[in-house]
Amino acid sequence: MIRIKIMRKLFPKIVFCFLFLLLTGGIFVSSGETSETSISGLFVNEQAYNNKEVIVQGEVLDVLSQKTGRWINLREKNAAIGVWCGKDVKLPEIEHFTGFNQRGDVIKVRGIFHSSCPDHWGEKDIHALFVHVVRKGFRIEEEVPSEKIKLVFLWGCLFAASFVFFAAGKLREKYRRPN
Amino acid sequence: MVPAVIAWFLKEKNPGVDFLLAFFIAESAGLFLMAAFSQRKELNYSLTFLLVSAVWMIVPLFGALPLWMSGHFKSFLGAFFDSMSGFTTTGLSVIQSLDTVPFSLNFWRHFMMFLGGQGIIIVALSFAATAASLGLGLYAGEAREEKILPDIFSTVRFIWLVSIVCFLLGSAALFFLSRHSGLPLKKAIFHSAFLFMAAFDTGGFTPQAMNIFYYHSIAIETATVVLMLLGSLNFNLHYCLWKKKRAEIFKNIETRTFFLSATFLFLFLSASVLISLRFSFGEFFRKIFYQLISAHTGCGFSNISVKELAGWPNLALIPLILAMALGGGIGSTTGGIKMMRVALLMKAIKSEIKSWIFPARVKIYEKYHHIQDLVLKDKRVRLVFVVFLFYIFSYFAGAVIGMFYGHSFLSSLFESVSACANVGLSLGITSASMPAGLKITYIIQMWAGRLEFISIIVSLGLIFSAFKK
């Protein structure tokens, strides 16, 4: 009798635990389909990510607008990839692109990775589903160190002096008369 | 000074100052040397070879100054590596953070290739009004065996004319295609000029780390293939095209050998790639054909990443190594053994085999067509064979040194051939963190490969004989 009582008490708890695990397990499984990774991670495990939904983050190098969509060139430290955004994908405003004295906007892209894209002649690319800006880029103010300016001035003077000296020698040689 | 003007125009302050400083240092050194060695003396043929070898080492040293001052290199050796790579139209690079390089510095990187492609001495000769007696020795010392026109100065000016006309047409075409692929105006202007200089002079530097796949454009890739092929043509054939003698292209032994070799290597590469990688038709043609033409013409552009190329099966690397080792046309901007030498060696082998078969009284001679019908002579074969042996020795010596640094034989050989044949394709060994010993090895290989060994061997001989006395 005592055993039955204990079982009756435990049964709903066991069922609850079972349902909880089932649900959370399902969430884990579905979250496994959209993996957040790095660009270099995509290249290293390209077969694992091929044709799967991925999330990557990187700095924008450029946005190339073409007839059927736009290419976003995205880079991280040692790798870069093209992100294809069809006309149907809404792009946020990207203001800064990585370049000289400029850090590009950091964006996060959710999309399908192709190790060999059938639409783009076998390129490795990501077809974006959703793009959003994580961090705005900025311009780096350029300053010329004063030592460098002094060095230029010094070398400039040296160059001018040696040029005058050399040119004077050449002129003397040219106009030197015999005897 | 040209990059300094560009930097000033684009408001790139630091690079502008760097270029000005480098200009002052180089000019002051030049004036000092002119004052120190002011005596006028006729140089003999072998001394001109020594001069050429020295110039090709000293000019990249000065060319490295603005690169080093930019802060994009770990050391001066790295900057010198890139400068040598630029002048010798190799295209290997150890630059860091290429995507943040200013336009003026990128212009300098590509302009070095343009100057080096023409030949530093040729650039100097085109400004010279005298020194006619030195002309031929200097011209030959820069690995140019053939004159196009009767005198050297007309030949030099013709080379410039072809290059400038091609520059205008090629850059205009690339500008149009860059705009079509969505590149912003400023980038399209600069990148079209950069890509032209790198493709036509078979250099291989690119303004972005993503290389050619930055543009996501088949049209740009096709245009660069055309430019690479034009760049790998002998300037004599450019002259024939200029004079509307198109038939020469089809009759010439070099173009025929190039066609045969490219076809054979394309089939070899296709078979070896398809064994282990699954490519769609478009991808197959795009990736395999582009890599092969880039290797064979000695350009070094790539429309796939270094990691992807390194992931190709080992068997596929062999045809690429062969293509790089063989190179393009003699008297062009490509490196490597060159098609003319390959063809003449084949003819010599054929002739030798015939001499075994036929009775001794039968006189065997081989004919070939290069601008005119010629007969293969033993003296020519000897010279060709010596240069061929030097290349083979250098390729393998570089590979052995690469193996000392822990790389596999095949990837070491790939990188060594790429450096010595002035190609620029890489499997990843060439990087900013590459050991100094390997940098020095590849610098020497690029230098020796560009001058086709003869100038350097003559120079070494002169130095040794001077010490003996």
Question: How would you characterize the overall build of this protein?
Answer:
The complex is a heterodimer of chains A (179) and B (469). Chain A is elongated, with a radius of gyration of 32 Å. Mean pLDDT of chain A is 81; it is low at 21-32. The longest helix of chain A is centred in the N-terminal third of the chain and has 32 residues, at 2-33. Chain A has helices at residues 2-33, 39-44, 46-49, 146-175, and strands spanning 34-36, 53-66, 69-75, 80-86, 102-103, 106-114, 125-135, 138-139. In chain A, strand 3 (69-75) and strand 4 form a beta hairpin. Chain A is built from four helices and eight strands. Chain A folds into two domains: 1-33, no CATH class; 39-139, Nucleic acid-binding proteins (OB fold (Dihydrolipoamide Acetyltransferase, E2P), Beta Barrel). Chain A is of the alpha+beta class and 179 residues long. With 469 residues, chain B is mostly helical. Helix content of chain B is 68%, strand content 2%. Chain B is built from 21 helices and two strands. Chain B has helices at 2-9, 13-36, 45-69, 76-87, 103-118, 120-127, 132-141, 152-180, 185-200, 218-231, 235-242, 247-251, 253-276, 281-296, 306-310, 314-326, 339-357, 378-404, 409-420, 436-450, 454-468, and strands spanning 367-370, 372-375. In chain B, strand 1 (367-370) and strand 2 form a beta hairpin. The longest helix of chain B is centred in the middle third of the chain and has 29 residues, at 152-180. Chain B is globular and about 75 Å long.
Cα end-to-end separation of chain B: 43 Å
CATH class of the largest domain in chain A: Mainly Beta
Largest interchain contact:
A-B, 43 and 45 residues
The overall number of domains of chain A is 2
| Distance between the amino and carboxyl termini of chain A | 139 Å
Percent of residues in β-strands of chain A: 25-35%
Shape of chain A: elongated
Point out poorly predicted stretches of chain A: 21-32
